[in-house]
Amino acid sequence: MTSIPQWADPGVPEGELDPQGLNRRSLLRRAGLFGAGFAAASVAGPAAPAAASDKQLDQYVYLVGDHHVHTQYSHDAKYTVSQAAGRGAQFGLDWMVCTEHSNVGHEDFGATLERADILKARAENPRTLIFQGLEWYIPGAEHATVFTAPGEAEAEVLRQFEKLYDGKLLPSSDEGLAVAALKWLAASGKDALVLANHPSRLGIDSPHELRAWRDAAPGIMIGMEGAPGAQGAAIPGLRGAASIRGEYENKPSAQSYAGYPADAYVTHGGFDWMTATVGGMWDSLLAEGKLFSITSNSDNHRTVFDTLRNGDFPAGSTFDSTGRIPDPIETHTAQAGSDFWPGQFSRTHVGVTRYGYAEVMAGLRAGRVWVDHGQLVDGVDVRLTSAHGRSATLGGRISARRGERLTLTVTVTSASRPNFHGVLPRLAHLDVIRGAVRGPSSPDSFVAPDTRVVESFDTSRRSGTYTLKFPLVASSSSYLRLRGSDGRRHGPGLLGRSVDPHGPIPHTPGDGDPWLDTWLYTNPIFIDVK
């Protein structure tokens, strides 16, 4: 049984809640879920169905999470599971996934040892749902988060998957093996999810591979990181004059997809090129009419300005023989790092109607997701409605007759408290992006020429909770998604001003303070025109 978080427990006085807890409780009240309705569903029971009724659309509460967190069970990280989970709870996470690198030591020892530490961390942090996962070396490509629903076999499933299909352990660059791996997960009977991590960092996740993964296991391979971790990498003076947010500091190699431009190898407003380009790779996937979600997370290995260093192995021991790094040691001196703590800067928000592991996985699978950096806003609620009462929210679909009038309604809850940098964020603009759905495209296409910003709301003078409306006509099948920022750094998008007049841009190498350039993105809503 899972304990409900403090902000959802009517027995916890409001005076004992932090500002984020107070805000979350107000969301529950508005959704009519505060008290018995939410608490009664606090067990990790069967997942809610992906499709929701109109009544359910008024009941979603968005839980904050991070699906990419490393601990001492990764060969290149350092924190204990309890330290990572405790920091996540401190920075307001409701759920997180421990994603350890595939490695000989991890497959032989670490996965099993870590499960005991995860059970301990779950007991220590009852307000945080903690999944055990794996960072898979995809054969022929980059990395991906793989995780399953908690249970007695959670570690063993990861070990089997790692042993059979990991590109580092085998080793293998066979693209077909990646497809086979996803089909194996789909046939395993386990509730599993997979998300591609930092997809443009090395340029080796080709468009045809992304499509093959998505189509091999719909409902399991559900998306990719819209923004990578390591967002602190380019804080001025921290790592050097060439540093880039996300540690996107690479050049094309022999393994890279030759069609990608130079822009693909750096981040734009902290976001991966695939997501940041209006009319780019993400939109080319959505233009096929298939959901492919984005996320944002910490990829935490070593936190910026942290004073802990890696512990020392006993004589004769290595990661390969123990499956874990020794506990970290306090130095009282800042150590090297590029990452923020889970929840400190990057957040993935998932819409649920109940609190539990299965509910978070169901929300991710359904695409009820929006992401932000720097706690840019407290909340975003998005609804697309027809004059006949049909409605859909993020990740959903609405059917319409050609020529039918629809309304996109966006309710923004402004940041009500200083962020973890000590500054009260302000959303400067919110953009509506619309793309045509044209059906299947060529396997290596990474452009969607019919996608563009169709409306930009100036929100710089708005505060509190406010509503924006965008009327449209269902002329053909399409999708809508949203993007916003603090307005400090922007310029014409990568495909031109007529497509994106004020999109995210790369920062000067070595001068990319992430707190001064924050963005939010939402998943799409599809319009199926008949």
Written overview of the protein:
The model is unreliable at 40-57 (pLDDT under 50). The chain has helices at residues 19-31, 36-39, 54-57, 81-90, 104-124, 154-165, 175-187, 207-216, 273-276, 281-286, 319-322, 357-366, and strands at 61-69, 95-101, 129-137, 143-148, 192-197, 221-227, 293-296, 308-309, 329-330, 346-352, 369-373, 377-386, 391-392, 397-400, 404-414, 429-436, 452-458, 465-474, 478-485, 519-522, 525-529. The chain has a 15-stranded mixed beta sheet that branches. It has a four-stranded antiparallel beta sheet with strand order 13-12-15-18, with no helix packed on it. Strand 2 (95-101), helix 5 and strand 3 form a beta-alpha-beta unit. Helix 4 (81-90) packs across helix 5 (104-124), helix 5 runs antiparallel to helix 6 and helix 7 (175-187) runs parallel beside helix 8. The chain is an alpha+beta fold. It has twelve helices and 21 strands. Helix content is 21%, strand content 25%. The chain is globular, with a radius of gyration of 22 Å. Residues 1-20, 484-510 are annotated as: Disordered. This is Histidinol-phosphatase. InterPro entries: Pol/histidinol_Pase-like, TAT_signal.
